[in-house]
Amino acid sequence: MSSRYPQAAGFTLIELVVAIVISAIVASFMVLFLDTPIESYFAQTRRSDLVDSAHRISDAVTADARSALPNSMRLNAAGTALELLATAGVARYYGKGDKNSAAGEELTVGAAASSFGTLDSFTTQTLPYRAQYYISVGNLGTPPYDAYRIANGVMTSLGTITVDPNPSTPPYVAGENLLNLSGSMTFKAPGAPATQPSVHNAYLVSGPVSYVCKPNAAKPAAGTLMRYSGYGVTNAQAVPPAGTGGLIAHDVSACTIAIVPAPAGYAYGELAILRVTLSSNGESLQVFLEAPTEYGQ
């Protein structure tokens, strides 16, 4: 006599265990095949981020250093902060005898002046000129000829100049400037007024710029390189300064900055040297940058 219920079909415990083991083996092989390309992708992404940070460091520091006021680079004691005075243009001023001793048009360094003219315009600055700029003449970067110490007679105070581009007053011609000071000022230089500077450069200074490294080798707190601007000129270097900070690079694990001064007797400017190490999850990139100034005093 047959059973009223058919015999149920299914897996035995042994078959189930074998299936699980085979599935695990297949999955492990899949992981082995997929792990390498996935890890390679993330490693390449990390390298790309580090290279991008290196490019940002190079582009930003090189651009600011190139247009820096001669002899205006300075460092903090730890060698982690660089400050310079950024310029918006340079023009050759009319020195003593250049305009047949025309009053108000020639600048005699070492003598009081309330206005003077320049041979050309500050071509890199968009007109009209902004009143919050400075004019610097004869900065040597050392006391008493230091632009950071404005009262020394190397740079005007903030907002005390007006610039008349293309003045109609003869004998000015198109492309020249007439600079008016709000009061009388004496620009100083060694040996002046008996000895006048050989290079008659007047710089339109937009203000100080700082680069501050905050390296941190310990993760997850990554170090940074910040750029600060929009703050006032101060006698002593502040780290960080009281300006607006912008992130240039993250993942900074080490950073040192050095300055090579301008050689005596040469027209070359200063040289900023940065050594920055960028690190991210086992990937590391070292940046070595030499950023020279374009202008010589």
Q: Quick one: biggest sheet? A: 6 strands, antiparallel
How many DSSP E strands? 12
- Categorize the overall geometry: elongated
Tell me the structural class: alpha+beta
Number of helices: 1
Distance between the termini: 117 Å
Instruction: Please give the radius of gyration in angstroms.
Output: 32 Å
- Give the amount of beta strand, in percent: 25-35%
SSE order in H/E notation? HEEEEEEEEEEEE
- Summed over residues and divided by their number, the pLDDT gives a mean of 82
Q: Unreliable runs, pLDDT <50, ≥5 residues?
A: 124-128
Helical amount: 10-25%
Can you tag this structure with a few keywords?
single chain; 297 residues; alpha+beta; six-stranded antiparallel beta sheet; three-stranded antiparallel beta sheet; 1 helix; 12 strands; 18% helix; elongated
Task: Describe, in plain words, how this protein is organized in 3D.
The chain is α+β, with helices and mostly antiparallel strands. It has one helix at 13-66; strands at residues 74-75, 81-92, 112-118, 134-136, 161-165, 177-186, 201-214, 224-229, 244-250, 252-260, 271-280, 283-292. Helices cover 18% and strands 32% of the residues. Strands 1, 2, 4, 7, 8 and 9 form a 6-stranded antiparallel sheet that branches. It has a 3-stranded antiparallel sheet with strand order 3-6-5, with no helix packed on it. It has a 3-stranded antiparallel sheet with strand order 10-11-12, covered by helices on one side. Strand 11 (271-280) and strand 12 (283-292) form a beta hairpin. The protein is elongated, with a radius of gyration of 32 Å. The model is unreliable at 124-128 (pLDDT under 50).
